[in-house]
Amino acid sequence: MILPIVAYGDPVLRKVAVEINADYPELKTLIANMKETMYNASGVGLAAPQIGKAIRLFLIDASPFAEDEELSDKDRAALKNFNKVFINAKILKEDGEEWVFNEGCLSIPDVREDVYRQPEITIEYQDEDFKTHTETLNGLAARVFQHEYDHIDGILFTDKLSSLKKRLIKKKLDNISKGKINSEYRMRFPNAKKGK
C-alpha cells in the first residue's frame, strides 16, 4: 500500500525516533508498504518518520545511482546491490574529509542543495530478521545512509545548510508545509488549509 509522505513542517520529522524490537506490530507489512511508497515516489531511501512513525527504521535502494556514468566502476558495483532495511542503526565511526553532493528529500520536494558529509562510515544495524550487522560504507552509499540516519534523529538535510542558504529557501519550505506545491506522489501536509 502506498502511504502518504509527511511534508516538511510536520513535528514527527523533528522527533528522535525510538528503537524497536522483533515484536513491533506488523513490521513486515510496514516495510513492504514503505518500499512501495519509496519506489512510487522514485526515491532511493525512506525513513519511518517520513510516513509518520517515529521509530528507528529506514530503507535504502541506491541501485538507481549505479547507472551514473560519472562514477567509478567500483562505486557503481557497490551501489548496484545496495538495497537494504536498517533497524536501530548506529554510526560507530566517521572517517575522511567531508565532500559535497547535491541532495534532495521526498519530504521536501523541489528543493535540492549541496550538503557536506563524511566519505566513510562504519555502521551497526539490524536487518528485518533482527540479525545484527557491522559494515563500512563509502562514497554515495555512506551519503545515502547518513541522510536517512539523520531522519531517525530528527534532522533534515536543510539543517546542514548555511544561514544564508536557509534564508533563501525559507519561502519554499513554508509553501511545502502549507501544501502549496505540486507533488508527483501522495503527501501529508502539516499546515495545509482544510477544504481546498
Explain the overall architecture:
The strands form three sheets. This protein has a five-stranded antiparallel β-sheet with strand order 2-3-4-7-8, with helices on both faces. A two-stranded parallel sheet has the order 1-9. A two-stranded antiparallel sheet has the order 5-6. It is of the alpha+beta class. A hairpin with a 5-residue loop joins strand 7 (120-126) and strand 8. The chain has one domain: Alpha-Beta Complex (Peptide Deformylase), CATH 3.90.45.10. The chain has helices at residues 27-40, 73-80, 139-152, 163-177; strands at residues 5-6, 45-47, 57-61, 83-95, 99-105, 108-117, 120-126, 132-138, 187-188. It is built from four helices and nine strands, in the order E-H-E-E-H-E-E-E-E-E-H-H-E.
> Which regions have little confidence, pLDDT < 50, spanning 5+ residues?
none
Mean pLDDT: 94
Radius of gyration, in angstroms, nearest whole number:
16 Å
* Percent in strands: 25-35%
What's the CATH H-level superfamily name? Peptide deformylase
Q: What is the 3D shape?
A: globular
CATH topology: Peptide Deformylase
Quaternary class: single chain
What is the name of the CATH class? Alpha Beta
